[in-house]
Amino acid sequence: MGKLQQDAGILNDSDVVRAVIADCERMLASISPANAATLMEQATDAHLALDRLAHAGSDVRPEQVRLDTIDERLIRNAQRIVTALGGSGAFAALRQRLAAGEYSGARWWRLDDILAAQRQALLRRMALTGAVILMLGIAAYLFRGVLFPPDPVGDAVTAAGRALSQHDTQTALRDIDAGLTHVPTSTQLLIWRAELLEAQGDPAAASVYTQVRTLFGNTTFLLERAQVDLALGNNDRPIIDMTALIASEPSAPEPFFLRATAYENKGQFESAITDLNQAADLAQRQGNDTLYATARVRLGTLMQAAGQQRSTSTP
To answer: Are 123 and 185 found together in one domain?
Structure first.
């Protein structure tokens, strides 16, 4: 078989085995359709020869270690070898032709079985993953009310914003009123309602503003109204409201942050940067990490925008 059938000349049997093992190592480094069959044949020859030397009393431990490594590499490269030989059927035919009976059951001669087992394991994992995903989907559907609780305030604001984008104030007002049926004391929805009434010139807006101020206090009222104003694109009143609030509560970071937003929307970047610096400083002192981080990120963006504004305005 293979190299062992050649005239060894002055080489002894151990030299020939080492040469065959070296051939296997070289072929494993670059497996291809041209050498895959030879690789399996040489590996079989090496095992047979090493067994004969061991039975004759030779010390084959160094060669056995190298051959064991080759066996493991054959197993690790199962896919490449079987593919190079033309598939599992061709590999099985080669095994029947070349493998001696004592080696036909060796793992390195059962590469097709190893690949089949790997495919079965993959299919089982895929089936298990699919079953888990299906069960999670069913659980999410059954418990959707718990996992995804309804948000009548957010839904009403979103619907109103969509209506306003179509210049349909009446529909926006109906959307807000629908939200208030679920959350009648929502400061956000009440102020949205007042803003929409005010936009229509309805005097009822003043009573809604008074209601919110009475229920929740002046600070909450001004902060909430500023946010709704900004959402609606009204930037002047938030500057007035937040300036008044800063005068009465100079250590609160939120008024500075909201006034900075209004300044930014109006293109007054330097004023916005000043307010954002103050908001970040106050938020850090109070341990409001979220507001601090948000203000710092906005500062970076604004400073870049301010620099571009200055460069374009320079003659």
So the answer is: no
